[in-house]
Amino acid sequence: MDLPDLGFGGAPLGGLLDPVGDAAAANTVQAALDAGLKYFDTAPYYGFGLSERRLGDAVRNQDGIILSSKVGRVLKPGLPDDPLGFGWPKPLPFTPVYDYSYDGVMRSYEDSLQRLGRDRIDILYLHDIGRSTHTNPVEEERHFNDAMTGGYRALDELRRTGDVSAIGIGVNETDVSLRVLEHGVWDIFLVAGRYTLLEQEALDPLFTRLGERDVKVVVGGPFNSGILVGGTTWNYETAPSAIVDRVEALTCVCAAHLVPLPAAALQFPLAHPVVTSVIPGTRTPEEFAQVLSWYSTEIPASFWSDLKSEGLLSAETPTPS
Fold first, then answer.
1. Residue 179 CB neighbour total at 10 angstroms
2. Which residues are 201's β-sheet partners?
3. Of 104, 105, 75, the residue nearest 91 (C-alpha)
4. Distance between CA atoms of 195 and 203, rounded to whole angstroms?
5. Is residue 112 a contact partner of residue 72, using CB atoms and an 8 Å limit?
6. 296-317 pLDDT tens trace
7. Quick check: 170 and 127 in contact, CB under 8 A?
8. What are residue 167's phi and psi, to 5 degrees?
9. pLDDT tens sequence across 92-144
10. Does pLDDT of 1 surpass 80?
């Protein structure tokens, strides 16, 4: 499946860390459609179903749309005690429950079709497996085993029957991505925050092995949850001093070349041959317009070479031509 370079990340539509109104959400997706975007990503977890509902309403009658969603959580009626603790201040009245089993994945997939109001999801990712999400080692091992047995069997069945076109995982860490490669045949991984202008943890060995197996990558979180667009958060928490220092060093090189830091951050991942798309998230039409401007900004080759000479990128890191 060929994805466009620029896609749309749907987490803000669920009100990640800050509520988004219905009108703002609808207008933002419409701005993306008007600009010709074809690839949209969402998940049941985003606003406990809110992102899927909003995105489905916005793109339902559009032709040529490629839609991805995720499995691994089933939404049960009733809010948790502290939805903001999950990152969603005004979600729909449901509680996410982890379930990576065959039945859980199939139910999650069918529920997503209902929320989206569609009869098809093009790409289906196993969502948030790994130690950064499941910090209890016993639970992490149980979830991983469920995902690689029953969960994978469900995904593979949906792919074989043509109900979905591609399967993969959607994660924020590289270790579990390497482990997953040893279990099954995958088409595409969504890797968030681990291959950015700020950090290239996924460069090797993960991207090397993905390339060897012809597994493509969608890069999520190209702005590292805000620190690369002037914010103060990294990995959805206050950025530590080492990260702040590195961002300041990147900013100095950007200033010397009159390059906006977010433009460099958005364009950088696309230079790697395994990366097929980058999906920043936006919550207003104005934010989306800014993303389009950054995407089209011309960046001189000398900028990338200076990043390498300053030690901010390794010599072997692919950069835009």
1. 13
2. none
3. 75
4. 7
5. no
6. 999 999 999 999 999 999 999 9
7. yes
8. -130, 155
9. 999 999 999 999 999 999 999 999 999 999 999 999 999 999 999 999 999 99
10. no
Per-residue pLDDT of 8-34, as tens digits, reads 999 999 999 999 999 999 999 999 999
**Rounded distance between C-alpha atoms, residue 104 and residue 111, angstroms:** 10
Rg (CA), the chain: 19
Residue 135 is predicted with a pLDDT of 95
User: Containing H/E element for 170?
Assistant: strand 166-171
Strand 216-220 versus strand 188-192 pairing type: parallel
Which of the residues are catalytic? 41, 46, 70
The whole-angstrom separation of Cα 184 and Cα 203 is 22
Per residue in 154-196, pLDDT (tens digit) is: 999 999 999 999 999 999 999 999 999 999 999 999 999 999 9
pTM above 0.90, yes or no: yes
Beta strands 188-192; 94-98: pairing state: unpaired
The DSSP 8-state label assigned to residue 200 in this structure reads -
Phi, psi of 278 (to 5 degrees): -125, 135
Cα torsion 90, 8, 184, 274: sign: negative
Question: Residue 219: what residue type?
Answer: V
How do beta strands 123-127 and 216-220 pair? unpaired
Structure-token pair, residue 39:
């690839």
Classify residue 300 as exposed, middle or buried by CB count within 10 Å of its CB (0-12, 13-18, 19+): exposed
Tokens 């939805």 — which residue? 83
Residue 74 in contact with residue 104, Cβ under 8 Å?
A: yes
